[in-house]
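Following up on my earlier message about fe (iii) ion. Here are the inputs again, as you asked, copied directly from the submission form:
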Amino acid sequence: MNILIKNIKELLQVREPGTDKIAGKEMATLPKLESAWLLIEGNNITDFGTMDSCPEVNAASTIDATGKTVLPAWCDSHTHIVYAGNREQEFVDRINGLTYEEIAARGGGILNSAKKLNETSEEDLYLQSCQRLEEVMRLGSGAVEIKSGYGLTVEGELKMLRVIKRLKEEYPVAIKATFLGAHAFPKEFKENHKGYVDIIINEMLPVIAKEQLANYIDAFCETGYFSVEETEQIIEAGKKYGLQAKIHVNQFTAIGGIEACVKHGALSVDHLEIVTDEDIEVLKNSNTIPVALPSCSFFISIPYTPARKMLDNGLPLALATDFNPGTTPSGNMNLVVATACIKMKMTPEEAINAATLNGAYAMGISKTHGSITKGKRANVIITKPLTSYYQLPYAFGSNLIDSVIIEGEIIK
Ligand code: NIG
Ligand code: FE
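Thanks, got it. Here's what our run produced:
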């Protein structure tokens, strides 16, 4: 279907082909057109310009966007949308004084979700995940990375990845699947880490690769979870099957994981609530993009990624939700952008760059997603009338989205 959007007050993130990510000072600039039009043909953006050059086209649908802002749909490069049930009790336990680490140490946390997941049928897991995916699409996400990691058994991990594959087939949103068998050590491997790492490498990975169930590989590199050495082993094993790494690292402690990820060519390092000066040095001149997850910091009350320091040192930064049952039961990228501005002192321009083009880079799709560029996928958010796009983070908590178009399909 062809769609012509006319009278757009502000068309944001307009870029020529070829910019794959934005770093440092450049993130302060968000290129835009005022009083603009945008033409969508089939799945793609085919043209755009200012209203003085608006073409006479025979579009199946013409949208009048007077007073409204149009921007690329969010690219959420880090989620765990496929999970079973929830962890509301742990939420209340934290209110009553327990920490995330204390809850995990007594068998809650990731192991709690793994137990639920292994007791849930693939069909039920799929239906629960559909609801979450549909919700985030309505909230403006047009591309979503989804991880496994709540199975922690061969069957459980495969079940999750098959659900992700089915979501890819059923929904227009771009989905990348990440294998996160190395999310936590199952109880029976608490004293036998090598035994579980062997299962990941020798039993899970070969089947996942054969069935083409994953695009990336991940590990939770953290004190009490996977050591730097174990993480390196997993990254290298993934490479043998063509899976590049996207790693959970520096959420609670800095143990040298970032340096290892950069050395092994990871696409992204995610979380980074704790970042040392050495980590920043290592990330400079690398192609590894840091990814911050501010709604995780908000929900479990841990530090925010020091975005200002990272950007001032010339690094790129992407923003993602981390949607998961334990640390971030929310897939709302609008809230992530607002929180980045409010708590991390990112400007609206920096936050929108981080949540669109840099998010696309962090999931390997910036050639096709993340900006208003001729030939890229027609994934856009049309807002309600706004005084300016500053209102998006300013009016945090309000839903300012009028409609979302994903792959040329009007979602709402
Ligand atoms: O990204 N930190 C590791 N993994 C998830 C949370 C896992 C959970 O508590 O269920 C995260 O925050
Ligand atoms: Fe995560």
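One observation from looking it over: The longest strand covers residues 2-12. Hope that helps, and feel free to reply on this thread.
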